[in-house]
Amino acid sequence: MSEAENRDASNLLLLCLFHAWEVDDVPEQYPAEVLREWKRAQLAKYESARRGWTITDADAREAVAPPDLLTAIEAIGDVVPFNPRMRSRAEAWQLAVRRGHARRVARLTPLVSSERRDSVLAWMAVLDAPIVDVPAGQVRVLVARLGAGKSEQADRWWEQGLSAAAHDPDTDIPLYFTARQIVTTLEQAVVAELGNDPARYCRIVIDDLDSVPTQKADCLLSEARQLVQVWPKVSVLATARPRIAATAEEKIDVAPWPAERGAKLVEVATGEQLSPYLRATEPDDLLTSPLTALALAHRVRTGRDTQVSRAQLLSELAPMVIQSHHIDVPDETWYDLARLAVALLERPESSTAASFSPLPRLQRLLATDLVVQDEDTLAFALPVFEHYFGAEAIRFDLVSLNEIAAASSFPQWRYALAFAVVRATAPEQETLLIKLARINPAAVFWILDETAETAERETLGGPSDEELAALIQRRAPRGAPTEPDLAIRAGLWLREAEQALLTGLGPLAESLVRHRDGNPVQWGVWLQSGYLTLARARHTAAPPDVVKLAEIRPSLADGWHRVTQFCFPTTDFGRWLLAQQELQEQLQIAIERKTLLVPRTSWLARERTYDLAAFVQDFASARRRRPIVLAELCETVGSRLESVNASQRSTWWSSAGRDVDSDDIRWLSTQLALEDSDALEAPWPDGDQPHTGKWIWQAYSPELTLTIATAIVREALVGYRQLVELNFPAFGDVMGLYSMLPVRVEGLVGRPADHDDDTSSVEMLLMLHPDPNQRNPDNPIVDLRLITPDHDRTFWEFGRSHQNSARTRFGPNPLQELQLPLHATCPATSLAYRWLARDLAAVGWLEDRHRGGT
């Protein structure tokens, strides 16, 4: 078949482009008869289809007639993606009302019977509790422990905004997000929900910041601060548990409920008058928050014992709800609840309904009343259920204890871990606490604080020998060796807890407890009438770890150090509280004396070397700094070292109350061996102009003041980083300033006029900017600007321009106002320890965050 015949009209056949090209390109493979057969089949199919048409004249007219406008809009709406702009204001308002009601019902359904739910809702609607105030253009954060009513207060504030929106066209419908719902930026989520920019008055709630990783929570708060600056009619209210990174102005501590209000809620939830006996004996702590009050009502309604601790009440809530609802939960559903908790705590985006297919499996989850579904997303009706089943996941080994207790993961898992400890048997509690202590001592400290009701300190009077032996036997893990001597057994019991915490502390341990050959020194104990005398050896290494003292008051001449006597702890977690107190006291001392590990060649070591040398050579009281002749210094230190080696402990005091002890002399002696010059130079220079004024700063010219200020800040940043990396290597992620590093510093140095005798010091205002592009951690960028007299307004403007800067996860403010300690021998050390002490206080290691860095 020729190409002309192939293209002839009698041979026309509609083909797809690919096959048409093929026929044209190789016509010899497609004979005319084949193509005609294809054409005959095509025509036959067409005729068959045409005979089947039954279109009427009316159908034809409808097909060509234009539709009415409403029909057209509905048809378009069926194919165009939905946008909130499509809702009328009335529809949006009504939808918000329904959503608000649904949130309340979801929280109440597990805890309150269906017959009493409306009564509780009505009672809460007229509650006379004040509503928080969040001015337009501001961010506020409701802060309280788990179950204290943060979400309830946020709901009331949101509903107040909803009422305002019903009457004011310049007020947008308020928005309510959980932190997990915001998967993009906060502004994108707001615009997507509103359907437009938030140019009008609008209230925004971000509930449960603790449900997302701390870095995401910090990011959301930072975005909220930026949002209210861009749209000044917007106000944002977030909810979080303690230690969230909120400023003092932003933070609103949720006040506990009056016990009378909690008692009334119990009565409304049960429909019965609370008996006078229960009113008189109920722990007040359980009536001071809505969650624990409702949980208590649940126990009252089911006839359970109400004399429980708060931690125990919350940890038993989930199974109590399931039992009271008479729901049969098979093992596989119980495991699914634990798997859902893991997903929510670690990867919230994976907590979808599709993850729990097929449908009957999903329905069994929802039938527990513990889980709610919002479109394709699953969540627990209350955070307490999430933490309970997180604890179940720990029990089922669905997660690694090493991973979830690590410093970076612990903030998400802390309540689940606390529930796991509370619900375990006594031997299991001790085993779990020992594991946690070796991974993250801060985790144990937090759990002890959270479960304080079950770990109160002892009253006067010691236990009998029988009670003490029974306590240790009841709580000791199975298979633990038994020491026949009760005093040694008691000492080993206490030492095991301290040793586990020291293992977790790593290199810091040697700064807190005396070590010998890499292990804590030996203990000596004496037990009498429930009181234990504990003496720590000065140099004797273990083993044996514990020996029996020859007398109740051992002599220091026998090699003992720091002898203490106390009533043996008999509460469940008594030994852990005792070890915590001991280690925190020693850490506080090390912070105050500034004796933590630093590199021998660091600037902080150089400052300490000169400071101790000046003390030894009686230069400590001299105002001018000057070189110290090394040969004379070594001779003096050698003499002091002889006294140290010949005594149990030596201490030297200055007239100003400053002291240097044996450990300081040993450290200085080792440090001087590294010096290769003839004299020890002062780290910082004296002033460069005549000192005719009242204050030390007046002896420094403006130029030298700025130079020294810049160097001090730079060396303090390097020293702080070294302190964390050497002493807290496992906890860097939760150390506030360290989590920001590397940083770039900009700031102001305010030096008064030379003749200003009313101002005692030079002030600095620093702004710390995270700078991931910085390549040299030992030389951070510090850019300070000198401000001469009348610097108050410049400081105020600088502070105002940076007041909304993002903070880090445990609360340090990157905007810092400090004094420049030109009078100090160790100014960089003081500033580095100031930052460290503040960070340690923020994570619960020190009680007073203002100590340790002046």
* Quaternary structure annotation: single chain
Helices and strands: which structural class? alpha/beta
- The order of strands across the largest sheet is 2-3-4-1-5
Cα gyration radius (Å): 36 Å
Shape: globular
Q: Unreliable segments (pLDDT under 50, ≥5 consecutive)?
A: 453-459, 806-811, 849-854
Let me know the largest β-sheet: 5 strands, parallel
Number of helices: 32
Mean pLDDT: 84
How many angstroms does the end-to-end distance come to?
Answer: 102 Å
Classify the helix fraction into a percent range: 40-55%
Q: Beta-strand level of the residues, as a percent range?
A: 5-15%
Integer tally of domains: 6
How many strand units?
20
Provide the fold topology.
Layout: H1 3-6, H2 17-25, H3 32-51, H4 57-64, H5 69-79, H6 89-108, H7 114-125, E1 139-143, H8 150-167, E2 175-178, H9 186-194, E3 202-207, H10 214-230, E4 234-240, E5 251-253, H11 259-270, H12 276-281, H13 290-301, H14 310-315, H15 317-324, H16 331-346, H17 359-367, E6 371-374, E7 377-380, H18 383-395, H19 401-404, H20 410-423, H21 426-439, H22 441-450, H23 465-475, H24 486-505, H25 509-512, E8 515-516, E9 519-528, E10 531-541, E11 546-548, E12 560-567, H26 574-593, H27 603-616, E13 628-629, H28 630-645, E14 651-653, E15 659-661, H29 662-672, E16 679-680, H30 702-727, E17 743-750, E18 762-770, E19 782-787, H31 792-801, E20 815-820, H32 827-842
Parallel strand pairs: 1-4, 1-5, 2-3, 3-4, 9-11, 17-19
Antiparallel strand pairs: 6-7, 8-9, 9-10, 10-12, 13-16, 14-15, 17-18, 18-20
